[in-house]
Write a structure and sequence with these properties.
Blueprint: H1 2-5, H2 11-14, H3 20-23, H4 42-45, H5 48-58, H6 61-64, H7 69-86
Length: 87
């Protein structure tokens, strides 16, 4: 999702994860977040187009807004290690 967020993926993949500002014609607070469907159907809940944005939002902002892929991976690994060893 980091690569999609920073437009480093092919257009076909990027189009699977639209941003909220591309879905709505009006201004909202979360314009840079990814849009995902809410559904009661388990097939849609488990779809990558739903799980990807949910997983991305679960990552701390410090990691999500990293300046490079290397920095993102490094910060995310530190976050995961900290969460693992603190519990």
């Amino acid at each position: 999702m980091y690569q999609v967020y920073n437009n480093n993926m092919p257009k076909a993949i990027t189009e699977l994860f639209p941003r909220i500002n591309n879905v709505h014609s009006y201004s909202t607070r979360n314009t840079d977040k990814f849009y995902h469907l809410s559904s009661c159907i388990n097939v849609i809940k488990m779809c990558i187009t739903t799980q990807g944005p949910l997983a991305w939002e679960a990552i701390p902002a410090l990691c999500r807004y990293a300046s490079s892929t290397y920095s993102f991976k490094s910060k995310y690994k530190k976050y995961l290690a900290g969460a693992y060893f603190s519990s």
